[in-house]
Design a protein that fits this description.
10 helices, mainly alpha
Length: 218
């Protein structure tokens, strides 16, 4: 049991390291666009407080990290892959063989989910697919107006569908179970938000844009 948990932790750290380069790019993009966002909020008579800005930054960096794991070839951002790429042993982007890609599409619902109970790796991937998409449901509900469960459901489905489609072009397989699990993860993230809002309504309200106070004291 302990060995399995250590193995899970090692995989999580490895995926986290692969997310880091794109997360740094997300941070840079957020900082570059922040002045334009602030000017837009001023025109609307709104302001975004420190908590909201911090949460928005985390979400932007997470989305960039999620893209690093999903819309690039497998292990694209790992040190081992770049070692072989720089040595010329592997191409940066592997060639796509379309007959193989189409044959790898898994369209039977719950096939991989059932396999998850037969081995630790498939179980890890199932839990990871749910967990990694929970912020897709949580942050938009926390930061947006009028959060609804169906918005989280549609957002998770649309984002996962786009990822599964793009993976065809980078030499990765597409799986309907990933679509199901990712959508479930987004919905789970929304329910976490609902729980947080029920327990700490004043805290969650601080993540919303508010009207500028200087409009009333200027």
């Amino acid at each position: 049991m302990v060995e399995t948990l250590v193995w899970y932790l090692g995989n999580i750290l490895d995926y986290g390291a692969q997310m880091l380069p794109c997360m740094i790019l997300g941070l840079a993009g957020f900082l570059l666009l922040r002045p334009a966002r602030r000017r837009r909020l001023v025109r609307l008579g709104l302001e975004s407080g420190p908590l909201r800005e911090g949460a928005l930054l985390l979400f932007v960096m997470f989305c960039a990290g999620l893209a690093a794991l999903t819309v690039f070839p497998a292990n694209f951002w790992s040190r081992t892959r770049w070692h072989w790429v720089l040595q010329g042993s592997e191409p940066l982007f592997p060639p796509v063989t379309w007959p193989v890609r189409f044959s790898d599409i898994q369209l039977n619902p719950f096939q991989e989910i059932q396999r998850a109970f037969r081995g630790p790796w498939v179980m890890f991937m199932m839990v990871a697919n749910i967990g990694i998409f929970s912020p897709v449901g949580f942050f938009p509900a926390l930061l947006g107006r009028r959060p609804r469960w169906w918005k989280a459901l549609l957002t998770g489905f649309a984002a996962s569908f786009a990822i599964e489609f793009l993976q065809l072009f980078v030499g990765r397989s597409s799986d309907v179970d990933d679509l199901i699990l990712n959508t479930a993860g987004a919905l789970a993230g929304y329910w976490v938000f609902c729980l947080l809002r029920a327990l700490f309504p004043k805290l969650t309200a601080k993540f919303q844009c508010r009207e500028r106070e200087d409009l009333y004291h200027g």
